[in-house]
Amino acid sequence: MNFEWDENKNKKNIEKHGIDFNDAKEVFKDEKRVTLENDRKDFGETRWLTIGAIFDAIFSVVYTIRETTFRIISARNASRKERKEYDKHNNQENE
Questions:
Q1: pLDDT at 95 over 70
Q2: Is residue 61 over pLDDT 60?
Q3: Please, what is the Cα angle at 11 between 10 and 14, to 5 degrees?
Q4: How is residue 77 annotated by DSSP?
Q5: With left for phi above 0 and alpha for psi between -120 and 50, is residue 94 left, alpha or beta?
Q6: Average pLDDT, integer, range 34-42
Q7: For the whole model, what pTM was predicted?
Q8: Spatial distance between the Cα atoms of 10 and 35, rounded to a whole number of angstroms
Q9: What CA–CA distance (Å, rounded) separates 83 from 21?
Q10: Would you call 24 exposed, middle or buried from its count of C-beta atoms within 10 A (0-12, 13-18, 19+)?
Q11: Least CB-packed of 21, 64, 90, 92 within 10 Å?
Q12: Pairing relationship of beta strands 2-4 and 69-77 according to DSSP bridges
């Protein structure tokens, strides 16, 4: 997987959410990750939300895919709703 991001946005993300986009890439290594289309509004391009474990915590990473590159837009601790979605998805696999 190839990744890219705006370094100024990364710095703001670290200040606001405490996670570096370089660390956020790790969410894609979680075999139990959940990926959803982020369609809460029209961004002019398809955005994706992947929820997964990093450092023993659940994080949400928003990104877009440009050709073969994942462009990270934001990363943060998953919301309660997102953690429930992650748990629900993974509990269904175990049934």
A1: no
A2: yes
A3: 85
A4: E
A5: alpha
A6: 86
A7: 0.90
A8: 21
A9: 20
A10: buried
A11: 92
A12: parallel
